[in-house]
Amino acid sequence: MPESVDFALEVYLKFWLDYMKSISCPALNYYKYLITVVGMEVIYHDSSLNRRRMNNYLVTANMRHGLTRGKNMVNTSLEAGQLAPDFCLPDQEGNRICLENLKGKWVVLYFYPRDNTPGCSLEARNFSCLRTDFEAENAVVLGVSRDSEESHRTFIEKKELNIKLLSDEQAEVHGKYDVLHPKHFRGKDVISAVRTTFLINPEGKIVRIWEHVKSVGHAEKVLSELKKLKEK
């Protein structure tokens, strides 16, 4: 594709991205209707075959137009007060964990990029240290990444963790919670999970969201917020 057309396409995609955000379009949030770009022609359809192609266009447009830097860093489209998207995922032992089956409990659902990295290890250890405190508040802590069950088992054994880690290798739940976004990492533009935590109440509603989480002290903040919410 000629450079001039490529640039025009990126400008068009930026406009379309901003427009869909402004109207909270489900097409953007859940990829229900995906966009295939052929030259400057835009076609809507339901097939997932073109998801990767469209995603790559959006990543390029986002990066070049600065949508992921500074104050414009991309956040999840979900908001407090919404029903949490349902899911069923295997934990490190292969047991299916479904949100529907956790009704009546508070759920701390935290997404992280990858097992055995420094920030993810610190976050997981902190949640593990506070596991009994969360349980005393009728809360369960669930970590989610795109790593395999085997990777989770190794991570848990190596770091001596005691929380459940869910495997979302196809990133379907990442998509539902809108936590996969482009970022610049080691000189490359990549798609990565943005470290994000959702606090879900016993009725299944999202009551608090932490985005672009810093690992240090995060588990303590979540526990403190949980206690405050329960006092209301």
Number of domains: 2
Radius of gyration: 19 Å
Distance between the termini: 57 Å
Helical residue percent band? 25-40%
| Average of the residue pLDDT scores | 78
CATH architecture of the largest domain: 3-Layer(aba) Sandwich
CATH fold label of the largest domain: Glutaredoxin
Low-confidence stretches: 1-6, 19-72
How many β-strand stretches?
11
Q: In the CATH hierarchy, what is the superfamily of the largest domain?
A: Glutaredoxin
The CATH class label of the largest domain is Alpha Beta
What class, by secondary structure content?
alpha+beta
Strand order of the largest sheet: 7-6-5-10-11
Order of helices and strands: HHEEHEEEHHEHEHEEEEH
Largest sheet: 5 strands, mixed
Strand fraction: 15-25%
Based on Cα principal axes, name the global outline. globular
In DSSP terms (H or I, runs of 4 or more residues), the helix count works out at 8
